[in-house]
């Protein structure tokens, strides 16, 4: 099976960021004064009253970003009442969607059709902190095999460590050169320039760098890239699926106020009412709500493509930042087998490719057997490769998979025998 998707990127805006007090004009000592500006002049009991009146908070989007923001606000239940509105008709969670195979042979294997894993290489990954706060079971995929078919070579452990270190150096040079020219170019163009200048095109580290998602996407900004974080894929996954994060955020803890949750409510327009100190949200079904605070947590494409309008318009630098966020098509492939023909010593298999047309085409496979004891592999297509794959007939897609398995894992089997 495969799932359509784009880059899992959310933009979170906080609008009408007003103080935690009653807004408007109040008569104080015979004069109209703003309560927020004159709080210290009020009796202590009146200050307490102003600070404890609940504010209505609306969150647009129920993905991880939206739900996490809603939970953070709801933890202060004395001050905030939180409502979450989701455009989908059938479920919360946004691009996080954990399904379970009904086939009894899969033994209830949790399959993430959307976001799948936690990158432990990135420092201070908030998703890891969130998963740990809920005590969710996870497993590491820190063992990796790198396959170069045309050289008949399989790299792992010490050999691979040397390759990744050299890959870091290539990315660092690419970043430094692009910054020295004060010209933002794509990771792909910057890396290709370094590889050509230093005659590294036929080196294992060059093959490895070309397998990174940031390279495959083609238009990923070099200035936005952090070369200390090799984006080689997942290093930790949740055993019960990423949907567990969604479930925990939806349910909350006994100490937190419940969230008011609404499905099938696609926001169309957001308007700031300065006179009333409110934010108005109009939905596609014609209804509207008002709030004291608003958090918008939606895929950047929703804002970029004008599906969600703002009045007044967002600042120019917001729109520019959204426009520059790279987006791409993406598919996930999940295949079950009667018998495992791959080594269970490794969690991730990455295959180098030479032809440009094959870049992003099932280059990385995740060993699900290592996670759940089920003979299953999961892979990905990104960028142009995903678009081409979706146009294949079912028979052609199966044949493509068979051909790839033959070239992908025949070398790993030889490596095991040696």
From TrEMBL:
It comes from the Eukaryota. It holds the Pfam family Amino_oxidase. The chain crosses the membrane at residues 6-24. Keywords: Membrane, Transmembrane, Transmembrane helix. One of its GO terms (molecular function) is oxidoreductase activity. The keyword Membrane applies. Gene3D superfamilies: 3.90.660.10, FAD/NAD(P)-binding domain. Residues 64-407 form the Amine oxidase domain. Coiled coil: none annotated. This is Amine oxidase domain-containing protein. It comes from Biomphalaria glabrata. The lineage of its organism: Eukaryota, Metazoa, Spiralia, Lophotrochozoa, Mollusca.
